[in-house]
Amino acid sequence: MSAGCITNNNLFLIGDIFLTIVRSGLTVSIAVLRSTLLSLNNISRVSIETGVMQACQMTAKITGQLLTIILSCPPPNSPQQLLWNGGYVKAHSVVQGTSGSISTDHVIIITVSGSLVEPINPEPTFLRLRDDINTDDFMEINGGQSTWQVSQSTLQAACELLWSKVVEIKVTLKGIASVTPSDIKTFPYQLSDGKQPVGSLRRRVHFYMPPLPH
Questions:
Q1: Is the pLDDT of residue 76 over 80?
Q2: Spatial distance between the Cα atoms of 35 and 111, rounded to a whole number of angstroms
Q3: DSSP per residue, 180-199
Q4: Radius of gyration of the chain (CA)
Q5: Where along the chain do its domains lie?
Q6: How far is 214 from 211, CA to CA, in rounded Å?
Q7: Which residues make Cβ contacts (< 8 Å) with residue 98, sequence separation at least 6?
Q8: Whole-number mean pLDDT of the chain?
Q9: Membrane-crossing residues (predicted)?
Q10: What is the enclosing helix (H) or strand (E) of 22?
């Protein structure tokens, strides 16, 4: 299965994995997405030069699907990994004409400025060789054998870079993409037991990030 790897580090492609900052209520968290649409100056592209995409003065827009991520439970003093379980974070939407009585779930799709995108190269991993995850959490993966992972340190470093950009270009809290997942356990990312891991991303986000102007 493809890990959405960037084949050319100078280009960002449709299907690549990226990080951005998303808020759920007043909680600002790091999010992992797969790109589905790229545009530059309102023109759709199949790829964009990474430097151009991230330039604050450019009007690059990146659209992606919010991925469901499972955090590993490593032994003490071992690095934590975040693995894609093959799923997507979903939200409720009311079926038109039902007066709100009937709703359905849809995959959350987010569009963000290219300046708030950090591309990443996930590493492939074999689920059956791991003892720090519950393989039952990965039933949505075709074949159930392999997926990709990102280290928590990579996400934290990206978080700091993204936040420095937010402060630099003076993005307000309302200017950060907001999501309301139908299952609050799927986002912000957390352990399967509902607890935040030690040094969790969400907690670190709050620790490292100064207050935003409203």
A1: yes
A2: 9
A3: --SSTTTSS---TTSPPPTT
A4: 17
A5: 11-204
A6: 9
A7: none
A8: 81
A9: 12-33
A10: strand 17-24
* Beta carbons within 10 angstroms of residue 5's beta carbon: 15
What is the identity of the amino acid at 47? Answer: S
Residues forming beta bridges with residue 150, ordered by sequence position: 82
In this prediction, residue 193 carries a pLDDT of: 58
For the chain, give the number of residues: 214
User: Residue 85 is encoded by which pair of tokens?
Assistant: 């379980």
Q: Are 56 and 169 in contact (CB under 8 A)?
A: yes
The number of beta carbons lying within 10 Å of the beta carbon of residue 35 is 20
The amino acid occupying position 202 is: R
pTM assigned to the model: 0.81
Six-digit token string for 114 = 């290219």
Q: What spatial distance separates the first Cα and last Cα of the chain, rounded to whole Å? A: 42
CA angle 22, 81, 27 (to 5 degrees): 25
Q: What is the pLDDT of residues 48-75, one digit of tens each?
A: 999 999 886 678 999 999 999 988 888 8
